[in-house]
Amino acid sequence: MESDKKLISENFNLFKVRKDQIIISDTEDCDKLFFIIKGSLRIFYFTPLNVEVTRTFILENEFCTNLISFSGQAVNKENIQALEDTFVFYIRRKNFYEMLAQSHVLTELYAKILEQFIARHLSHFQFMNMLTPKERVEKFLTDSIEINRRVKDKIIATYLGVTPEYFSKTKNAFYKK
Question: Residue limits of the Cyclic nucleotide-binding domain (predicted)?
Fold first, then answer.
């Protein structure tokens, strides 16, 4: 266990990110895995029609990367942006896989993180495809209080697949109940 802590401290670097700063752009390889200490990030992309879509929000004590690019399976097409001043630890791809090769404990931890990642994205896929826009907004307001408090409505709308005007109108009606 002590050797695992040493591996982590030797391979992760602390980085301060300013609000609105893009730390990985859709034109570069996503060769870093981030762990959020304080603050928040989002992963977003643009559709072929240049519509902005937020794929996910990442808060404190969560990992963040574009897994497809990080694992070398495909070219990165997403941006990672700080939504507020944020402190992260990061590790580069090469160091990450070298670290896993040296520790069964960290490999098992990574497997658990991947399971959580898959479950989170499957839940969001179902959320986006099985609920009406109104139901998505209402469920978001009920289940994601912290994100709603910290993130601008315009950005939340890109996550929910609705216009900012629709989100604002539905949000106001929801809170008047």
Answer: 16-102
Which tokens is 28 given? Answer: 């570069």
Q: What is the pLDDT of residues 130-164, one digit of tens each?
A: 999 999 999 999 999 999 999 999 999 999 999 99
pTM above 0.85, yes or no: yes
C-alpha–C-alpha distance, residues 70 and 76, integer Å: 8
Distance of CA 32 to the CA centre of its chain: 13
88 Cβ partners below 8 Å, 6+ apart? 14, 15, 17, 23, 34, 35, 36, 37, 39, 41, 64
Amino acid letter, 37: I
Instruction: Kindly state the tokens that stand for 161.
Output: 């697949």
